[in-house]
Amino acid sequence: MWGSGASTPVYPVYRTDWDLSQVEATTIFAVYPFALALVLACLGGVSDRVGRRAAMLAGVASIAGGALVFGVAPDLGSAIAGRALMGVGVGLGLSPATAVMVESASHAAPGRSSSIATASTAIGLAFATLIGGALVEYAPAPLHFSYWVLFAVAVVVLLMLLRLSPDRPTQARSERRRGLRLPATFRGVLVRASISIAAAYSLGALELSLGADIGKELIGTSNAFAIGSIISITSLVIGVVAIAARRLSARVSGVSGGIASVAATATLIGAAQASSLVLFVVFAVLGGIAYSLLFASGVAALASSIPESFRVTSLSTAYLVGCVIQVVVALGLGVVATNSGLLQGVSAGLPVVGGVGAIALITNVLPVREDHRQ
């Protein structure tokens, strides 16, 4: 997840040094979920065939490759290539990593594994924005140095993964032959989980693609570390809430997260219109609460309801839905911001983000019959 947010503090520098439009800058972000979605759609269950350790190794290696490309990138094309590699890496590694965490905590309550997964997301995003912002502002080579740090971290993670024992593929030969299809009994749970994760990812798209520019142009500061620190508040809140709310059911987390998502988007509209740093910080807190509860709700619903043989495929499907929403939100915001200005872009995008959060709220309130057939 560090790779996911690594470019966030650098976007304003790209725009200045490379003379990019807002849509070009958000394209750098949008390439990541697009590549991730493509991998999830085509290779979402690959770890069932090659083993989860192998899939995670390939994923982290791709993230390291993306960091290398970013570390020497001279122009927009190179940055897009680096983001694509990071998207491929997260697409390969995220679902099996989540599945391994779920299975490692199988003796505990379902909320345990979802809180660990959500907290891991928070730590990665916090490192991306806080450490990345500091390196962009105070280290040499603001366009490149933070990516070399990420590359070093990826190498360390690769070495740690190599210490894991190789695992056997979980998909039986008979299941391979007929294609693994989720029984209708569990599809309602998958839909609800996918919408919850999509609502979380739409908030992430808003903050990670435009958060630095919002801080610079609307809130009135150009200090990358200051902006990264504010954005990292969201990540810190995600982690705290994930641990504090680990005993909540998936449905309660989804309802609470949907309410927080709607409140967060309304607050950001006020922050943008009033150029208020205080309201921007309030948005960062509410956005963190919403993301944490919505993401945890999706993972917990799948962990508690989906059989192991379908778990990676189901997680990949839910992440795929979230990534598609991220692409749509990020590119839509970039187009409107380029044509009409950042304030109009934010104002136009927020109802969409809040709307997805409201849908997540509704789907978690409504009963799902499949929950009672297990």
Task: Tell me about this structure.
The structure is a single chain. The protein is mainly alpha-helical and 374 residues long. The chain contains 15 helices and no strands. The radius of gyration is 19 Å and the shape is globular. The relative contact order is 0.17. The C terminus is likely disordered.
Helices and strands in order:
Elements: H1 2-5, H2 11-17, H3 22-43, H4 46-50, H5 52-72, H6 76-104, H7 110-138, H8 145-162, H9 173-178, H10 187-218, H11 224-244, H12 250-274, H13 277-305, H14 308-340, H15 342-365
Helix pairs in contact: 2-3, 3-6, 3-10, 3-14, 5-6, 5-8, 6-7, 6-14, 7-11, 7-13, 10-11, 10-12, 10-13, 10-14, 10-15, 11-13, 12-13, 12-15, 13-14, 14-15
Provide tags for this entry:
82% helix; mainly alpha; 374 residues; globular; 15 helices; single chain
Quick structural summary:
The chain is mainly alpha-helical and 374 residues long.
